[in-house]
């Protein structure tokens, strides 16, 4: 078993799998310690995980069991013997061991123990592969930190606001409640979009790029979705009439999903995304 490190737990696991040349399904993974971000560069520590090839682990356990199964008096030879005698003794040992194994009944305790080991191995595998408890704890920690981060920015804007947090396994929702929603939203939603970008970058820098986030003020996002659907339908019509592709402005992951779902309901057009966040955008084209 070997220790591997990385900026995050996921990076440490990927490094271990890469060096061992195995897939995640072939590995037994145990998180030793999660990464520590430190403060002002002090106390920062990488994540550590143990990664072991399941096949090698199984073979090693089988070897250990085989050694434990041989009686001590068979391993001890007090008198020197010739090569022929050694062969005869070895054959005798093997026959005796097989006979003892065949004659020795398996007790109920041993059966239960074997079943427990099998169950434990499977549960360990599930825990290492999916680790849902760690996922929940990680997303809860990330949700609280990013909410505190946005709260500080809003405070610096000289605004009073509260933030309600909700999340699923990969996505975080921040609902901002304030008496001055217009200042948080900004002209055409530019302020809210900037806050969203800052929050997304915060998550990517400190946690993982698999996390996404949506910021909402009152019912602005619902209203924005209605406008976006209407604009997407008009864009699709323009592409159908002209036959030329159309590149939309950069938008968030949630907004791009709304566009793709809307386009999927319209015959004769299709859409795809290009570019990198935060400048990733949707292209609408006529279908061949």
UniProtKB/TrEMBL annotation:
Stretch list, region Disordered: 59-108
One annotated Gene Ontology cellular component of this protein: cytoplasm
Matching Pfam families: Jag_N, KH_KhpA-B, R3H
Subcellular localization: Cytoplasm
Listed InterPro entries: Jag_KH, Jag_N_dom_sf, KH_dom-like_a/b, KH_dom_type_2, KhpB, KhpB_N, R3H_dom, R3H_dom_sf
Transmembrane segments: none
Keyword list, A-Z: Cell shape, Cell wall biogenesis/degradation, Chaperone, Cytoplasm, RNA-binding
Domain free text: Has an N-terminal Jag-N domain and 2 RNA-binding domains (KH and R3H).
Family as reported in the entry's similarity comment: Belongs to the KhpB RNA-binding protein family.
Binding partners and assembly: Forms a complex with KhpA.
HAMAP family xref list: KhpB (MF_00867)
Function: A probable RNA chaperone. Forms a complex with KhpA which binds to cellular RNA and controls its expression. Plays a role in peptidoglycan (PG) homeostasis and cell length regulation.
Name of the molecule in the record: RNA-binding protein KhpB
Gene of this entry: khpB
């Amino acid at each position: 078993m070997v220790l591997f490190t990385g900026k995050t737990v996921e990076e440490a696991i990927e490094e271990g799998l890469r060096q061992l040349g195995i897939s995640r399904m072939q590995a037994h993974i145990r998180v030793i310690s999660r990464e520590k971000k430190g403060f002002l560069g002090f106390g920062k520590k990488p994540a550590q995980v143990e990664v072991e090839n399941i096949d090698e682990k199984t073979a090693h356990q089988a070897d250990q069991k085989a050694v434990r199964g041989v009686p001590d008096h068979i391993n001890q030879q007090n008198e020197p013997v010739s090569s022929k005698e050694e062969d005869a003794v070895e054959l005798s040992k093997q026959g005796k061991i097989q006979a003892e194994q065949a004659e020795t009944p398996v007790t109920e305790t041993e059966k239960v123990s074997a079943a427990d080991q099998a169950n434990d191995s499977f549960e360990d595998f599930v825990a290492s592969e999916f680790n849902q408890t760690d996922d929940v704890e990680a997303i809860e920690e990330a949700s609280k930190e990013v909410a505190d981060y946005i709260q500080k920015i809003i405070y610096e804007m000289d605004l009073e606001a509260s933030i309600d947090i909700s999340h699923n396994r990969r996505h975080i929702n921040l609902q901002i409640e304030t008496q001055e929603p217009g200042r948080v939203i900004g002209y055409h939603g530019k302020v809210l979009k900037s806050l969203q970008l800052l929050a997304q970058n915060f998550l990517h820098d400190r946690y993982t790029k698999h996390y996404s986030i949506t910021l909402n003020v009152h019912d602005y996002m619902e209203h924005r979705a209605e406008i976006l659907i209407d604009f997407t339908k008009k864009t699709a019509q323009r592409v159908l009439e002209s036959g030329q592709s159309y590149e939309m402005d950069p938008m968030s992951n949630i907004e791009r999903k709304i566009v793709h779902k809307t386009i999927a309901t319209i015959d004769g057009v299709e859409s795809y995304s290009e570019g990198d966040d935060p400048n990733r955008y949707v292209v609408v084209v006529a279908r061949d």
